[in-house]
Amino acid sequence: MAKDKPKISLLLSGGGARAAYQVGILKAISEWYPRVHHSPFTIYSGTSAGAINVTSIASYASCFRLGVKKLEWIWSRLHSRRIFKASPYGMTSYLAGQWFARLQADHHERPPFGLLNNRPLRQLLNQVNNYSRLEKQILAGNLDGISITVSSYKSGQSVSFFQGQKELEEWDRAKSKGRRALINTEHLLASSAIPLVFPATRLGQTYYGDGSIHQLAPLRPSLKMGADKILIIDLINQKLDERDHTKAPGLAALGGHLMDTIFSDTLTADLEHLSRTNALLNALPASEQQKINMKIVDHIHLFPSKSFEPLAQKYYCHMPPMTRALMRLTGLSPRDDAAITSYILFEPAYINALIELGYHDALEQETILRNFLK
Predict the structure, then answer these.
(1) Tens of pLDDT along 28-79?
(2) Where can the motif GXSXG be found (predicted)?
(3) Which of 80, 147, 158, 210 is catalytic?
(4) From the candidates 45, 48, 59, 192, which is the catalytic residue?
């Protein structure tokens, strides 16, 4: 790749099953390039389900369309049973094991708590990801860096594990740090471990959970890896329908509100900070920008044009019966407030609807995106 070309980062936020929307946008973008063309992105940053997507795409940085096709093939054939144990026996035995472990004496190590057993996801990631390809893409110069962000339950910090060119340095900032590592399945499981839904993952001596929890600066990994431009595909839920605000919010409404806050609010604040920084730098001459070792970083922020909730309500009946029963037992009413359902509805009809939504949203922005990716 040309040395003078800007380094473009792809940043994918988290959102469980909603991350299928990102696949639709990437599918549209990939069709603008020849079949054997390299990826327009050389830097990848992902959190939660977005971390799973960027790892798959980065592994095929030398052939962008192939990477996207493989990712679409995986997502379009997903079922809940490929993500967590969804059978009546699997769910009851897992929850019984969780309950029994907490009755044991304190000297017995207790497993991390989660309502759903994500062991099938570990098996799926081990089957579909060839992590050695990441290092090959780095050595070939097709990949500058990839970062997977997790949250430490020990320190309360956001940790970005990155793999990339040798000149990339680790960093330590307030409530966040970057550490060099060889990305593997455990990093992806940790980054996508939604609190209470999936159990935390142990890396070394520390348990980690969903990367969105303590992530105060989602743009930082991309900036630290040298991005000149950042394409952000956010999964913020559009609240298009006015609700009856006189009714007290139920558990589902509160849970959905908390989930949306975890996955989206910090990105909005970080984008505002980047825009202010760019405005200040734009007022300075280029020589002054070099002196302070800062540069203007352009960005595009993509997000869904429609709410996820109507789709989640439409395809709610596709969710495994035992999962629906568990949600009912915990006091959730997915039909009335589908925000939480939209995160865990890993069923083909819903997934394909999100891919289609992302595809059409990207086509609506085609001219802007093409100019940005030059």
Answers:
(1) 999 999 988 999 999 999 999 999 999 999 999 999 999 999 999 999 989 9
(2) 46-50
(3) 210
(4) 48
* pTM for the model: 0.91
List the domain boundaries for the chain: 8-237+247-327+345-373
Cβ neighbourhood burial of 89 (10 Å; 0-12, 13-18, 19+): exposed
CATH topology of domain 8-237+247-327+345-373: Cytosolic phospholipase A2 catalytic domain (3.40.1090)
- Average pLDDT, rounded, for the chain: 88
Place of tokens 């940043």: 11
Query: Residues 6 or more apart from 194 whose CB is under 8 A from it?
Result: 16, 48, 209, 210, 259, 343
Asked if 314 and 345 count as a contact pair (C-beta separation under 8 A), the reply is: no
The closest of 253, 214, 269 to 339, measured between CA atoms, is: 253
210 is catalytic: yes
Element (H, E) at 54: helix 49-58
**Cβ partners under 8 Å of residue 138, min gap 6:** 144, 145, 163, 164, 165
CB atoms within 10 A of CB 156: 10
Task: Dihedral sign for Cα 300, 339, 359, 72, please.
Answer: positive
Measure the CA–CA gap between 29 and 248, rounded to whole angstroms. Answer: 43
Higher pLDDT pick, 53 / 290 = 53
Confidence grade of residue 368 (pLDDT, cut at 50, 70, 90):
very high
